[in-house]
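2024-03-11 09:14:02 INFO worker-7 job=invfold-0412 stage=load source=structure_tokens
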């Protein structure tokens, strides 16, 4: 093999490695952001739409 094909192969492998690293970092950042958003949500229970409401049934 000549030096050009070796360098081309090494460059391709380096590009793939960098792409995977960037993708992994982006996914980690999105995961951290999603966890932060979930932790920031209020922990109160949602109210039921009709339980506990007063109903007037007088005739």
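2024-03-11 09:14:09 INFO worker-7 stage=emit residues=59
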């Amino acid at each position: 093999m000549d030096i050009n094909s070796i360098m081309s192969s090494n460059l391709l492998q380096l590009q793939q490695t960098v792409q995977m690293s960037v993708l992994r970092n982006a996914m980690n950042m999105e995961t951290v952001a999603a966890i932060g958003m979930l932790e920031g949500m209020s922990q109160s229970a949602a109210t039921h739409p009709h339980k506990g409401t007063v109903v007037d049934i007088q005739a």
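2024-03-11 09:14:09 INFO worker-7 stage=report msg="The helical segments are 3-40."
2024-03-11 09:14:10 INFO worker-7 job finished
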